[in-house]
Amino acid sequence: MTESEGNGTRHNYDQESILAIAVDVFNRHGYEATSMGMLAEALGITKSAIYHHVPSKEYLLQLALDRALGRLEAILDDPLASTGPAIDKLRYVLRSATSVLTDDVSFITLLLRVRGNSEMERSALERRRAFNRTISELVDQAQADGAIRPDLDSRTTARLLFGMIGSVVDWYRPDGPVSAEKVADDVVAVAFGGVQVR
Amino acid sequence: MTESEGNGTRHNYDQESILAIAVDVFNRHGYEATSMGMLAEALGITKSAIYHHVPSKEYLLQLALDRALGRLEAILDDPLASTGPAIDKLRYVLRSATSVLTDDVSFITLLLRVRGNSEMERSALERRRAFNRTISELVDQAQADGAIRPDLDSRTTARLLFGMIGSVVDWYRPDGPVSAEKVADDVVAVAFGGVQVR
DNA sequence: GTCTATATGTTGATAGAC
DNA sequence: GTCTATCAACATATAGAC
Question: What pTM does this model have?
Answer without folding.
Answer: 0.95
